[in-house]
Amino acid sequence: MNEFKLLLRKDFFIVRNNIRLILKNPLRLLPYAAVLAYFSFFYFRRGGRSQDMDASQLDTLQDAAGEVPEVDFAMQNVVGGLTLLALAFLMFQLYRATKKNISFFTMADVNFVFTAPVNPSNLLVYYMIRSIFPALGGSLIFILYSTAQLNDVFDLNAWNLIIMSLGFTFFFFIISPIRFLIYTLNTKYGILPYIRNGIFILGIVLALMVMIPGLMAEKFWQGMFAWIGSPWFDFFPLVGWSRGILSYVSHGNVWIPLGFSLVYIISFFLILFLVIAHAGAYYEDVLESTKSNEEVKEKAMGKAEASESTGSLNLKKKLNLPDFGTGAVALYWRNYVHSSRQDFHPLFGLYALGFAGIAIIMAVLSNFDWFSHKIIYGYLGVMIMMYFFAGMGRTSVGDLKKPFFILIPATWTSKFINMIKLDLYQTGLFGVGLILPAVLIAGLSWGLILLFPICLLAFYLTGFAITLTTQVGFDEGWDRKLIRPVIVVGVILFGILPSVAAGFFGYFITDKFVYGMLGLSIGMVLVATLMLHLTLDIISRVEFKEM
After folding, report:
1. How many CB atoms lie within 10 A of CB 15?
2. What angle do CA 497, 502, 508 make, to 5 degrees?
3. Which of 134-148, 240-254, 442-456 has the highest average model confidence (pLDDT)?
4. d(CA 531, CA 528)
5. Residues 355-381: what's their mean pLDDT?
6. Are 225 and 80 within 8 A, CB to CB?
């Protein structure tokens, strides 16, 4: 018991010191105040409007809905789709457990706590239990953000939000002990092949639970989530238990979330018992994972440079490239060489082929009424957002992390264009390679062949310009950390959201997706043009400094 008091005292001093740092620099509270104001605005505004619908009206709507005998396929697919995403996340985490151990510690714990006179078993128990608090905080923030627009439908209060956050908290919290247990059992008994086979079989079973009811239905999309979206799936471990807790907001029966919470608690203590029984001397096992996690955090915070070889498929590939010329084109040559080593082709690689293949499969299945065109349109939207975030991450690798590119005798515009020329080629070819066969196979509008690549390029350049503006225009410190969110939010509020609104306006007026894409493209081209003009002005201010 004294060891747990020692650990609690250590964490108390850490919290106290962080509070003192905040008091010394109150500007640290600005991001949190902005988040609090955002949540308060939505909840108070929507909470006032929700009073217009009283309980009797809600009961009347529910009774009317109960009289309809047809299955609500839209709701079934929403529930089933979210369940499928949670199952995919669970399978991915289980697969990662067979590759790498998880760590509950930091390098500070390794250097100071591991050497303290504390029993390793007690230390592991304390840190495993303590990890529920970050999961609870993150889940509560996610619930507050995601349910801000549901006050018009559900009577959300503090009790409802707490219970719903428990559903996410238990799910994300218990995954780490499970991963630790899997790695521990493999380290001690060498049963990794059996664990992998079990995960593979579970994945096949879950896939069949989607495929079989879909094939049995008149249309695939009507039956694909008939099983995993049904109420009985609430008893499926972890994913179903959390879904059962989250469903409290719809039925209001407190015993159901309490029952699933009790199952979670029992499962955790069972896992904890197995970990303690089989962990042994785990210090050396978690050291590598702890160090790796620390490096990832440093790269995310900009303290360490990200490796350009991340994701490379063939680093030792022999190349025979023609002469590219001299001057700023050397930057394009460098990116071309790196991309050639990273994938089987520098312009259209394996990852692009995989994403384009998914769209082609969707297009083929849409001809058999397995998928509607709306699912293809949703996939196109996901690709656009992926390229937006890819553009934001582009400045963390490549020439922009090496300030000697300013020595090349060429204009700033030429150097800037050559730095991103290969990205533009890759993005454009990917957009055409994805949308062209999808249009031909599924019979979509021909205008998408032009508009979709333009949207990809515009979102990519916008994300790239946002990050580069803050990375070059501001030095390291709180000025960059505070200004970057302001710029991101400003571009989203005054650039991206109006463009998206123009797209929705075009879609609702014409009821055709191509006109929605046209409105989005026009708006984003303007946003990207303005951001690139700002970026070209800022890039010329780069001096001999690490970015």
Report:
1. 9
2. 120
3. 442-456
4. 5
5. 79
6. yes
